[in-house]
Input
Amino acid sequence: MRTSSKRDAHHLLELYLNDHLAGAGAGTALLKRAAKSHSGKPFGPLLERLAREVAQDREYLKEIMRSLDVSERRSRAALGRLGEKAGRLKLNGRVFSRSPLSDVIELEAMRLGVQGKRSCWLTLHSLAESDDRIDAARLAWLLERAEEQAEILEELRTRCAVRVFGPGQGGPADTVRQARARSLPRGAF
Output
C-alpha cells in the first residue's frame, strides 16, 4: 500500500468525511421520518431521541471538519438526501401505504448507518493521536454514544422483526407451526 502525500491525504480525508456527512444527513432524515410515523406508539420516543442525537452527531462532524480545514461539499450532501428519498421506493408488498416490513428494513438501515458512523469516529480517534486539532475525549464519548445507539436500534429491530414475522402474524413461525400441526395426529397437542 502506497503512502499518500500530505495533499493527497487531505483530499482523501475530505472525500471520506463528506461521504459520512452525507450519510449523517440521510440518517437524520430517515430517523425523523420514522419517529414521525411512530409518534404516539411505543417506539416513538426512542426514535425521536435517536433522531435528535444523530442530528447532533452530524453537527459534531461538521465541527471536526472545520477544525481540520475540510470544506463541506454540497454535491455530496445532495446525493445523500437523494439516496434517502430513493430508499423510500422499495418493493415492500404495498403500493400506497407503509408495510410492516418497512419498519424492519428501515431499522436495519438505521443500524447500519450508526455502525458506519462509529467507524468514522474510530478513524478520527486514531488520527487524534497525531493531530491535536482533533478532540480525542469527545470522540471517545461519540464512540460510546454510537455503540448505545446501535444497541437501541438492534433491540427495536429485533422486537419489530418478531412482531412482523413471529407467531400469529402469518410469518415463517406460523408456517412451521402449521406444517407441524398437519404432520401430527389429531390430539397430539
